[in-house]
Design a protein that fits this description.
The structure holds two protein chains of two kinds. By secondary structure, chain A is an alpha/beta fold. Chain A has 14 helices and 15 strands. Chain A has helices spanning 25-34, 65-70, 73-89, 112-123, 136-140, 144-153, 168-181, 200-208, 246-251, 277-291, 309-323, 335-338, 345-353, 356-359, and strands at residues 10-18, 39-44, 48-53, 101-107, 159-163, 187-194, 234-235, 237-245, 258-267, 300-303, 330-333, 361-362, 386-387, 393-400, 404-411. In chain A, a hairpin with a 3-residue loop joins strand 2 and strand 3. By secondary structure, chain B is mainly alpha-helical. Chain B has helices spanning 3-17, 32-35, 40-54, 69-82. Chain B starts with a helix and ends in an 8-residue tail after the last helix. The chains are: A alpha/beta, B mainly alpha.
């Protein structure tokens, strides 16, 4: 980061994404500005109809049917996002030294979908393990989504997944930044993906802990900070960025979208599932410190809040403690539209805010009929977008189970060398 | 069962495993891997589908018998006849 060691600056030059309400950044942004949810009724094994955010991107755009059959949904999402990101960056894959490209994909979990499917299939054969697929291991290894990207794109640099619960999208991005700064790679494809809606276990577990959203109207089920919120809407999605060192990006005249100027990751060290507001606040302050910024320098705080009764209160408390005195800072939440895209959430929710550098609009938090006073936040943007005089910096929160917190700060590109 | 019927059973399985391949002019005497984009994992899929659909086992030492479409037919025909299978299974 700029204030510590003289490390290279890192910029975002491409974005590829799929969200329950859009399959590119423009469609996604429009949906967020126009109030379109992506949550629908969804049939899942053993659970019947649940509410979920489901993506409808074209799997065959960048992947053969055979490769899709052999691989995983998470791999397919990652491949789609990686290609779309690369294309938007203006880089041409054929002309790149592909040994200098790295792929770093955050995941909340991986392998549950494939394992559940195999077990369900095996039941049809009296649990005879001769019918267990030889594809099971390559589908379920923890590096699967990132590895599928490298096979598909012929990338021979490093690849792996970052297991960071629901902070994973931010953590994937951070890993890309770090390896660029260390000079390990010249281009990083970094972000997060989730295929979690295809495992019944995640729904059943959230239900068992009283944290699965229910609502007669699917589009209103995810309602962070609202008094009537009753849990998480599980969603799938993906977002992968092309990251480059600023000098490289400028030298090739790249379309620079933003600069990653600071970040922090820390641990609660307190509980498996319950969040810790004090540690979350420390994480946000850590990100500000690494960027050499104060709270008053941040225009938008993109909150992690997942619509659970306990979690939202904790984050609101943390945000108040850091940004409560900053009149400039506005607060929003993207899960209110698309639910919780798990491993993709950090990267995807950041992407939803990036166009604000150009249009100066803060997309709102929707579905707040009655604000929970324990979640009250200064400058919480509700229902309608708000246009600011300028948007120069966004802080993006993403927190996860076992007490992992992450905050990333991106700034509007200032064009300086 | 005719050779043509068994050929179709094999090609139907290959179609499900490698749906992007054009199977309209597969030459029965030439190695499948030389004509189609198939690798060792795909051949394991063929073996698995024979097991799932027809309860037919292909021991590992016999995998090479499946190298060509002709080889598949001559190797598998006795197994199909032994089980009295005369038509394709879904």
């Amino acid at each position: 980061m700029r204030t510590t060691a003289p490390l290279p600056r890192v910029v975002i030059t491409g974005v590829g994404l799929t969200s329950p309400n859009g399959n590119d950044i423009h469609a996604f942004r429009n949906a967020l500005l126009e109030g379109h949810s992506g949550v629908v009724p969804f049939e899942t094994r053993h659970m019947g109809t649940v509410l979920a955010g489901v993506c409808d991107f074209d799997e065959q755009r960048h992947q053969s049917r055979k490769a899709r059959r052999r691989g995983t949904r998470a791999g397919s999402i990652a491949i789609y996002c990686a290609h779309e990101a690369f294309e938007s960056s203006g880089l041409e894959l054929e002309q790149q030294d592909r040994s200098r490209i790295g792929v770093f994909v955050g995941t909340t979990e991986h392998g549950n979908v494939e394992t559940e499917n195999e077990i369900a299939s095996l039941r049809g054969y009296d649990d005879d393990v001769r019918y267990w697929s030889h594809h099971h291991n390559p589908r379920t290894v923890a590096n699967n989504p990132a590895g599928e990207v490298t096979i598909n794109m012929g990338i021979t640099g490093p690849h792996y997944c970052l297991g960071a619960a629901c902070a994973a999208g931010n953590v994937g991005l951070i890993q890309g930044v770090q390896l660029l700064q260390l000079g390990v790679v010249d281009v990083a494809l970094a972000g997060g993906v989730s295929e979690s809606v295809h495992t019944f276990g995640i729904f059943a577990s959230f239900k068992a802990e009283g944290a699965l959203a229910q609502h007669d109207d699917p589009s209103q089920a995810s309602r962070p900070f609202d008094k009537g919120r009753n849990g998480i809407v599980v969603s799938e999605g993906g977002c992968i960025y092309v990251l480059e060192r600023a000098g490289d990006a400028m030298a090739r005249g790249a379309p620079i979208i933003a600069e990653v100027v600071g970040y922090a990751v820390n641990s609660d060290a307190t509980d498996f599932v319950l969040p810790n507001a004090q540690r979350q606040a420390e994480c946000m302050r850590g990100a500000l410190k690494s960027a050499g910024m104060s709270p008053e320098d941040v225009d938008i705080v993109s909150t992690h809040a997942t619509s659970t009764p306990l979690g939202d209160v904790q984050e609101a408390k943390a945000v108040r403690s850091v940004f409560g005195a900053s009149r400039r800072t506005h607060v929003n939440n993207t899960k209110s539209f698309i639910g919780h895209t798990m491993g993709a959430a950090g990267a995807l929710e950041l992407a939803g805010n990036l166009p604000a550098f150009l249009d100066r609009k803060v997309h709102p938090t929707i579905n707040i009929d009655e604000l929970d006073e324990d979640c009250a936040l200064e400058n919480l943007v509700v229902d309608q977008p708000k246009t600011l005089p300028t948007v120069d910096a966004v802080l993006n929160n993403s927190f996860g189970m076992l007490g992992i917190n992450s905050s990333v700060i991106v700034k509007k590109w200032d064009g300086a060398s | 069962m005719t050779n043509e019927a068994l050929q179709k059973i094999i090609l139907d399985i290959i179609h499900d495993i490698a749906p992007d391949e054009d199977l309209s002019d597969v030459e029965p005497s030439i190695r499948l891997r030389d004509q189609l984009d198939l690798d060792s994992m795909d051949f394991l899929d063929i073996v698995m589908e024979l097991r799932k659909r027809y309860k037919i086992e292909v021991p590992e030492e016999d995998y090479m018998e499946l190298a060509t479409l002709d080889g598949c037919v001559s190797y598998l025909m006795p197994k199909f006849e032994e089980k009295g299978i005369t038509t394709a299974s879904a």
